[in-house]
Amino acid sequence: MTQAIEPSAIPARAEDVLATQSQDVAVLMSMNTGKFIELNETARAIWELTDGSTPVADVVERLCEQFEVTREKCTGDVAGLYARMSDEGLIVFSD
Amino acid sequence: MLISAEETFTHLQQLGGACLNAAMLAALDQQEPSPASRFARANLLRRTGDLAGARAAFVEWLANDVPASEARLDDWSAIPSGLFSHGGYAIAPIVMIDDFLPVERMRSLHAHACERKALFRDALATNEDAPPAYDPDRRRTLVDYHFTLERNFFLSFIDENLAALRESLGLSDFSTNRVELKLTNHVDGGFFKTHSDNHAAYSAAGRAITWLYYFGETIPRFGGGDLYVFDSKPSGQAISPAWFTRIEALPNRLVAFPSWFFHAVGPTQLADNDFSQGRFAVSSHIHKTQDSATIWWDDNLS
Q1: From B27, B241, B242, residue closest to A20, measured CB to CB
Q2: Which of B207, B182, B186 minimizes the C-alpha distance to B136?
Q3: Model confidence pLDDT, tens digit, residues B189-232
């Protein structure tokens, strides 16, 4: 079930995730669930910042520096993607 | 076709896509081998339809990681019995025998089916508790219940090999009370949406083994028509959202699985819609009598 994501939460890649590039699209798959998720450019940048030590708020901060996007929109996009990744078993959170 | 069925087949094509799964297998190769990666390899391979590769991967996984497993893998097993994928879904054990008949006998059966073209009828489909009816949104299959050639051979084969089939599929000893046997053909647009052949408890009387023998031209002219057998929770009527075994309907191939598992037949494409070039199969259900037996997939109910 999707839950609200706190800015202080620290997302980490789940151990069973496979990441690959197929036909110019980055794709993640959980070895357990077998589900795929395709990443666009922004999602890929978020994934690259998902290192198990960077809080969500810092991910937003760095994306705002990297892309021309408002903080509000960026916060929403990051929260939405992390929620989906969490649902698909691709990331885990620690506080 | 129902939108839900179209969406299912699109989803299955994406999940079973050779390119994407090959990329995932390559990503697995970059990892240190582990129980999880060996099991994932077997699952990715069966999802793409590489059952020989999946079998080898399961053999390796069982030998390395679960030597005490009761999972069975004999000469007929493409997928062993007694296994579960993520979420507690039972993986459907699959028997697969290629080159089942001498080619000449397969050709004769094909000729026999083509001669009976006028006797094929639209198959009926069931929906919830409604009586069976022709429903092209759910199923487009042509059937002939009264073919004669090789009928006795198939019945004898079942009779003589039922114990081995049961063993390969992880089914307990049961008494058979009848065998359904028919010819089917999927021409252009043919399909069968996701369903199971038995919704009842294992102990109840009903269909127990579903088997198919695909036949036709040595090099088929139709496209599609793959059989998808889903990881399932038969007792809970639930289907894994992402794990399944894909089986190509290759001529002279026999396939069998427990009738309780959900399965579907993908759409067939046949450019000139020539009946004789369709996706032919002998399609059969072996019925069991009521008993008090239990079954391995009910041990993992959650």
Answers
A1: B27
A2: B186
A3: 999 999 999 999 999 999 999 999 999 999 999 999 999 999 99
